[in-house]
Amino acid sequence: MPTMVLRFPGSRYHATPGGHHVNEGLVEWPPSPWRLVRTLIACGYSTQRWDEVPLEGRRLVEALSSVLPEYRLPQAALGHSRHYMPTTKMKDGREETTLVLDAFADVGDGALWVRWPTKVDEEAQQLFELLVAHLGYLGRSESWVLGESISDDVPLPKAGHAFPHSDRVRPGRSFEQIALSAPDVPNDYATWRKGELEAAITELHLSNGKKPTQAQQKKIDMIQSAYPADLVDCLQRDTAWWKAQKWSRAPGTRSVLYWREGNALEVGTPSSPRMSGAHPVEMMLLALTTPSGSKSALPTVARTLPQAELLHNALVSKLGFGGEPCPELVGRDETGEPLKGHRHSHLLPADLDGDGRLDHVVVFAPMGLGARAQRAVRSLRRTYMKGGVGELQVAVAGVGALHDLRAIGAGLSQAVDELLGPTTGATSWINTTPFVPPRHLKKNGRSSLVGQVEAELSVRGFPPARVDVLDWTDETLALRHFVRRRQRGPQPPLDIGFAVRLIFDSPVVGPICLGYGSHFGLGLFRSVEKLGQP
User: Fold this and answer.
1) Which residues fall within 8 angstroms of residue 304, CB to CB, at 6 or more apart?
2) Residues 157 and 208 in one domain
């Protein structure tokens, strides 16, 4: 039985029920079967480069449309934001505006489960798993989702029931009935379409046994074009088309009744805590974009340190007051003492596409990111650039172990391989952001430049390495622009950085971050063995 689990990195689900205006402030919850099937088709076109729905896709769509799915809903709260949109009309010297509501379900870190009670063949199942894994959003485009296909022998969660109405089932008084849209059963639609076409053509009063005239054939073609050829064709028609054809609703749809628990969509904050049993993760990958989508407006790599500090401040603000401790983000234990051993979070801004601008941030904690830290990261939607001028949009692009970054995609994999090194490790590393000594430099001993690098390696659990201080070249000279006096927080002992090469006796796996500001992207090393360097 095809089953998928959807999580919402932005914590919100935006979708207006069919037949309702956006300003009614309603949210389609759960997502209708019609919306889910259309989303899978759209994903095929956008991520699998379909020119048309393939045969296995048609079998999958027809199987999912023939039955009604069962849901498990996370607790959600109904909310909305208000926007006063310009109308391009002037009144008394000012442009008029109109109020638009953006209603949403705040699902926090909850997961939506959907299971269709049907069997599909192996090819269709593989396609289903592929499409679910590549889903980007559900509903409106700001409803980001992370999809996962689940084996049908995994039981659904016990809470959050939502299931189709049946005359044989009468749920208790804690349930409420709602109407959703679902695709027609394919054979039912084909039979209905045939009857509608025959009735419409009969009204033309064609002569029996005679070939239609050119004018009559044109009318027949117009009638047939108003009815999509089959259910898969129906699911690909947009609103503009079916309204132009005088349909009162999307063709190939049926209204179905569902039962859902009465508290499935609360007004106000959901009563139970979120992700109380979440497992710690080693890494969360954040994608950075600008509101305009312009890559040239992203911060340059030289702003690694201040950009990571701004992001860290935003994450800590999401923790709020009280609640369970979050040492992995704040870097202090329950008594307020700083943690030792550099086990807490590192925010590592990264230029994964190699254009000289920061496009991702790796949030990495050797001690693991717990439930509260994950909630804070997932709830963050924006941060700012220099001086608070310029907004950056933030979205979770990956969660898991550090080695999961290697699956990020062919276009970005080289930068990830340099950050982590080969899977078997690397012996040669060069810093990609400057190493800033954490203590004042001395000529010899533990506080010399080499001594401080060696001490930093030791405290982080790396084996000893030969430390080569590199001369300033056209490539390394750019590192000097990364170091600057901070407006707040502890200042570096020296307002200067160094280019360093590390040579280990045996291969090690990254990331390697050393020295002052290492938790915010300074002193970050990259593997250079792939480049053929010693």
Assistant:
1) 349, 358, 433, 482, 520, 521, 522, 524
2) no
Specify the pTM.
Answer: 0.51
Residue 79's domain comprises 3-184+253-267
Q: Is the same domain home to 237 and 281?
A: no
Same domain membership, residue 520 and residue 395: no
Alpha helices in 137-270 (DSSP H): 186-202, 214-225, 231-234, 239-244
The rounded distance, in Å, linking the Cα atoms of 2 and 352 is 35
Q: In sequence order, what are the beta bridge partners of 281?
A: 369
Query: Is 505 within a domain?
Result: yes
Instruction: Convert the pLDDT of each residue in 151-200 to its tens digit.
Output: 888 888 878 888 888 877 778 777 888 888 899 898 888 888 888 888 87
CB half-sphere exposure, 208, CA atoms < 13 A: 0
Q: CA 255 → CA 17, 30, 410, 411, distances in Å?
A: 12, 14, 43, 43
Contact between 105 and 77 (Cβ < 8 Å): yes
Helix (H, G, I), strand (E, B) or coil at 221: helix
Polymer length in residues for the chain: 534
- pLDDT tens-digit map of 134-143: 888 888 878 8
Dihedral Cα 480, 483, 484, 486, nearest 10 deg? 180
The CA-atom distances, in angstroms, between 251 and each of 57, 176, 366 are 20, 27, 53
Asked if residue 274 lies in contact with residue 375, where contact means CB atoms within 8 angstroms, the answer is yes
**Same domain flag for 108 and 159:** yes
Q: How many domains does the chain have?
A: 4
